[in-house]
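so im writing up the methods section and need the Caleosin record in one place, dumping it here so i stop losing it
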Amino acid sequence: MSSSISSASTGAKFVPEEDNFLQRHVAFFDRNKDGIVYPSETYQGFRAIGCGYLLSAFASVFINMGLSSKTRPGKGFSWSFPIEVKNIHLAKHGSDSGVYDKDGRFVASKFEEIFAKHAKTHHDALTNDELKQLLNSRKEPNDRKGAIAAYSEWKVLHYLCKDKNGLLHKDTVRAVYDGSLFEKLEKEKLEKKRASKKHP
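--- predicted struct ---
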């Protein structure tokens, strides 16, 4: 039996498939690890990685309303807008980088292609202008929703993770694909909070 099967009925914790980076990426926001992400959990996840109240609130509405029905095939509409992590591959949008395949697995060649094609100033980092070029190159005709989703994802990543010179580094981008970046950001935020309490 796959470890990714959510067992809300048995009380078992949801565990993403090891090689399914998209599941691992989204599972961070499943705060109680039951395999379902509700808007409140999306909000909590964004706050945990350092986003402000307004951005977190907007993200919780935008993401859950946009993805919920796609990840719940055969199920009726729900006002609680749950996202089922095991089906997150069904919510892949267009105009993306192609680094996740149709099943949500990591495609290394597509990841390397991002930097081979667009990292001209530094071979292992993207400037803001290079990020814009990447987004423009991936736009698909008549795919406004996908383009907006891709733009939002990359711009939030750049906002949170650029270095002092405005560069978005390759290892940071790699970490966002498997979700490990979110855990790192949450840990750093907690450590800063503890430090501030010790040294007011």
